[in-house]
Each structure stands twice: as C-alpha cells, then as structure tokens.
Amino acid sequence: MEIREQLENLVNDALKSAIEGGKLALAEVPQAAMERPRDTSNGDWASTVALRCAKQAKMNPRQIAQIIVDELPENDLVSQCEIAGAGFINLTLAPAVFQGVARCVRTEKDNFGKGEIPAGESYVNLEYVSANPTGPMHVGHGRWATLGDAMARVMRHAGYNVYEEFYINDHGTQMDIFGTSVAVRYLQLLGHDVALPENSYGGGYVKDIAQGIIDRDGDTWVSAPEEERMAAFREIAYSEMLQNMEATLAGFGNHFECWFSERSLYVAGPDGTSPVTRSLASMREKGFIYEEDGATWFKSTAFGDEKDRVCIKENGEYTYFMSDVAYHYDKLERGFDHLINIWGADHHGYVKRCEAMLAAWDRPGALEVVLGQLVNLYRDGEAVRMSKRTGEMVTFKELIEEVGVDATRYLMLSRSSDQPIDFDIEAAKKKDASNPVYYVQYAHARICSILRKVAPADAAAATLAGTMTMDALADQLIAVDTDLARLTEPSELALMRTMSGFSELVAAAARDRAPFRLTHFAQDLAGTFHQFYTTCHVIGEDAELQAARLYLLDATRIVLAKSLNLLGVSAPTEM
RNA sequence: GCGCCAGUGGCUCAACGGAUAGAGCAUCGGACUUCUAAUCCGACGGUUGCAGGUUCGAUUCCUGCCUGGCGCACCA
User: Fold this and answer.
1) Is pLDDT above 80 for A29?
2) Which of A210, A267, A546, A570 lies 20 to 30 Å from A237 when distance is taken between CA atoms?
3) Nearest residue to B34 (CA, C1')?
4) How far is residue A309 from each of residues A196, A373, A539, measured CA to CA in Å?
C-alpha cells in the first residue's frame, strides 16, 4: 500500500472514532486528503481536513485538529505530529518508512513506480507526428515526436496499454501535386523549359529526388505520358520521403507499432466494403448523413459542431474529413477503446467535428485530442526560420544533427505542451549549468563513478566497455539485506523522500498527459543527490555506513535512470 | 465578430483550492590536498495582466476587460 493511503487510513480512522465518540459533530466523515507540503519544515505529509470541516462542526480548526491528533491510532509510520498554522495537521514520518522506499526501489528496479491500469482504460491508440509524406519533417514535428514517445512511455509505466501509430496522408490531390512537382524538376534538370505550376512543392528536396531519378533512369521518363510519369514519380518520391521519416524518427528513438496508410481506407476487402463505406454506412444508419447541394454531409451540428461537414463533394471526390471519419472508425474496428491524437494547436478548429463523429457512433468521449502549442526556433536570441545551409525551413533532422537527441528531447519536454516553446539552438547546444539535461545526466554519471570505484577493477572496466550493466555491477556490490537504519542524515532522508513520490508522479503525469513533469522530478532528484554528494561521503566510511549509502546511491541511480528513460533521454554512466 | 491556448522576479519555468508564491539561468559573493567543480553554499530579485465574485483560504474556480499566439473551406 502506498504511504499516502496508509496515512489517509490513519487520519480517517481518527476522524471516525472522534465522531463516534461524540467529540466531533459531523454528519458524515470527511476525507483526510493527505498532501505533501511544499516546505518540508511543515512535515512530510499534511492533512487540511480540520480546516475544511470547521464550518460544519462549528469549531475552531485548530481545536478540531487537536481532537483528530488525539484519536490517531498507534502506528509505526508517524514519528512526529504537529498542529500548525490555521489548523494543518503535519505529520513527520519515521526514517524507517523512507528507508523502506529505498529498499523498494532496489527490489523492484526497473519496475519501481509501475502503476495499475486505471479503471475504464483498456486499449489506447496514440497517434502522433503523422507528418505529410510530401516533404521533410519540420521542427514542430519534433515536438510531437518527443511528446508522443514520452507520453507512451509514461502511460505504459503507469499501467496503460498503449499502441503508437503514425498516420500517413498518402491519399488525395496533394500526392499528385507532389508527383507533378518532381516531374517538373526532372524535366527542368534535363534542360526542358517547363514552369513550376502554382501550389507546387518548391523545396530543394524535390529537386534532389528528381536528380536521383535521373541518376538511376536517365532521361527515359521524358517521353512517357504525363499522367504515367506523374504517377511513377509520385510513388518514388513518396517512398523516399517515408523512408526519410522512418529513419529520422528511428534515430530519434521513436517506435511506432503501425504506420497507417490513408490509402488503405479506400481499399475494399473481400466483402466489397472498405472503412470508408462502412463508416459512412454506419453514420447513415444512425441518421446523421444527408445530401444537399449535390454533396454528402455529416450532421456534426447534432453534437455541438458549429456547422455540418462535407464528406463527399459535389464533384464526387471525398474530402480529407471523410478519410478521418473512416480512419477513426477503423481504429474502433481494430478494438481500441480510447483514441488519443496529438495535434498542433493550428488544428484545433478540427477537433469538434472529430469528436462529433465518435459521438455519432455512440462512443462519445472515446476521442481525446491533445493540442500542443508550436515551436519557435531561435539562435542566440534571434528568431530563425531558415536553415543557413539550405536556405529553407529548418528540418527536424538538421535540428537533431546539430543539437543532439538528448538535449533536443529534454528541451522539447521541459514545458507543458500547451505552452509554446522558444527553442534556442545555441542554448540547447551549451554543455554547462544552463542546460538542465546535463545536470540530471551528471548526477547519474557521478553515482556510476562511485559504484565503479568500489568495484573490482575488471568489473568497473566491463561497465565502461559496455559488456556489463550498472545493474549487474550493483548487484555484485550491494547485499540485498543491507541494514539501512544508519540512513538518517537530512540529505539522505531528502533523497528517499523525493523518490517516495515517484509512483504518484508517474500516475499523475500519465493521467494528465504531461510527461514534462518528469523533467522537474528528475531535476529535483538530481539536485537532492548533488547536495547529498557534497555533505555525505560514501567511500571510506565505516563498513556499515558505506554499505547503507551505497544502497541508497544505487536506488537513486535506478530512479534517475528510470526518469530519464521515461523521457526518452539516455542515462550515461560517465561524462 | 466567434472559438481554442496562454499572461507569475531581468530571462526560462513550477506550484491535487492550502501555510511566508518556489526552482533554474543571469548578476554579485563564497567553496576543490577528500568518491567527477557539467557540482555545492549564500545574496539580490514578486501588487501572480487588470477589475470584480465564490471560499475559512484563490496563481489555481466563475464573470468581464486588456495583451499575445493560433484557428474559423465542398484545402489537404
């Protein structure tokens, strides 16, 4: 049982017996609702229950607090109990409670802080990035890549069953325009006088693709029929862009269970139906589809949208929205109960109609759209849009190459997703105190260094060579039954106290889709460690104390590594 | 005009409705003969955009206003 629950039970029991004993006149038993005071001088945990029921009980809150404290059952958790301020009940826990946390960490290792699946959540589809395959990913996509990945990691650790998906918009006229753009560049490179039509893709990468085709096939496509050439080039360019995105994201540490093609939504199966026809039929059956002005409409206003939306245009073409209708329907068909989409804030106008379609299928609330604010790039405080090298929009790939994966991820995650990010490339590249990612990683590396120092030389060397994990090394050095009773220094207790909040933090970060909180936790834990490092020595203390501190150190290492891992950031063993 | 997001020290950000609003950076002053100084300690710095309301208690919730970003297609 979590410490919070145990304390709540204690206080709740006290309340109950005070009421039953006639000392408190309350119609119903209020909840203890323990919280962690920001200032540890107010104890490790506090209850505000006395404040909240003062009015009903018609008593002074401090008086109520005293009654509750008097009724607190005997226990070995609380070492000190204080009534403070207006009527706060502040509890200080016995060191043994915190020592138990350290033991729990070393026992559970990578599973420390792992949660149970929240009620009502069974199978979550998390869709993110979903960049168009008509060009390279830009910096904003990097934010979604980071956020989605961290969200998936955090939610999994909190017990959710998460399936990560990338939606490829490979259907529709934009793809033909892409193919045409490549074809024009191809002809131009071969000396033909062809103008690039308006609305074309004009980026340098289009020319590169065309050059690639020339390198492979020469001028054989010049004589091909225009339509055929466009279609062929479209497919070549598409597959190149897709490989590009896959490689960039894989290098960034992302993994998608599924790369879902929009085209597949239009392909009929053996029974002659496709997701498009099935989703439309389902809506029609429920009475939310109608024809007007030659077009086919979804009655999204029935669910709060500001206007109805077209699914099939007057000219018979399907809208982009139709694809999304089919796509979400397909997700439901594939068995997902909860659909989470991460979108840029510039798409927020699109949310209502998508929520409406889920409601039309009697699955209101099944769709959750996480909107993220955009990324502004800076270099030494100056706004940058264009890359110096290409003269075009800075791509995500360029950003990672210049800044590095860890610093990019950490910075992208260090703000709540509904805050815009001002990403300064030069600031992100700095390897000093102003860059928090190194502060956290350094704490981890420092611990590893101490562990290596007390280890046999060959084992220490093996961890540096990568042939032995730190976990394995720690297991050699640290006895399972190490006595932790000597860990009573303030900085030792602070470390364990910080770690004791980890599982609750993971649960909250998952619930609120806010992995950025892990960055604050990691910095907090790293800071607490650095303090410990300066006040407490490990090596050279008496055998019992050294053993206990090594144990604590390794617990800290595990939690630091886990926090970084949940953010998708590496935990280096030396720096 | 309507809608979404946000406004907290010079800068970047925190704070389940709780206590004296916390960190980091920057600035200034200290600490390496000791397990990594990518570290630590200290100082300076605030009318939480404005005005009301709810509450024992509001940065947090409600209303109005101001400022900034984004969006309001038979485009994708």
Assistant:
1) no
2) A267
3) A537
4) 33, 25, 69
Q: Which of residues 56-75 of A touch strand B (CB under 7 A)?
A: 61
pLDDT at A380 over 80: no
d(CA A90, CA A93): 10
pLDDT at A104: 96
Prediction pTM value: 0.94
Q: What is the ipTM of this complex?
A: 0.94
The span from the CA of A463 to the CA of A572, in Å, is: 11
Across all strands, nucleotide nearest A540 (CA–C1'): B35
Q: Is the CB of A517 under 7 A from strand B?
A: yes
pLDDT in tens, A80-90: 999 988 889 99
**Order of strands across the sheet with A124-127?**
A258-261, A162-168, A124-127, A338-344, A367-372
Q: Which amino acid is at A133?
A: P
Q: 3-class SS at A491? A: helix
Distance CA A243, CA A404 (A): 21
Distance measured from the CA of protein residue A417 to the C1' of nucleotide B66, in angstroms: 25
Per-residue burial over A154-170, b if 16 or more Cβ lie within 10 Å, else e, is: bbbbbebebbbbbbbbb
Computed on alpha carbons and rounded to an integer, the radius of gyration of chain A in Å comes to: 30
- Which has the higher per-residue pLDDT, A117 or A522? A522
Buried b (16+ CB within 10 A) or exposed e, A20-41: eeebbeeeebbebebeeeeeee
Residue of A213 and A2 predicted with greater confidence = A213
Name the nt closest to A530 by C-alpha to C1': B39
Of A252, A109, A253, nearest to A562 (Cα)? Answer: A109
- Residues 201-240, chain A: which have Cβ under 7 A from strand B? none
Angle between helices A226-252 and A405-413 (to 10 degrees): 90
**pLDDT at res. A418:** 81
User: Between helices A516-535 and A490-500, what is the axis angle to 10°?
Assistant: 160
Q: What is the pLDDT of residues A152-173, one digit of tens each?
A: 999 999 999 999 999 999 999 9
Q: In the structure, what pLDDT confidence band is assigned to residue A552 with cuts at 50, 70 and 90? A: very high
Nearest to A372 by CA among A156, A134, A141: A141
Q: Which window residues (288-317, chain A) lie with Cβ within 7 Å of strand B? A: 292-295, 306, 310, 313-315, 317
Q: Is the CB of A199 under 7 A from strand B?
A: no
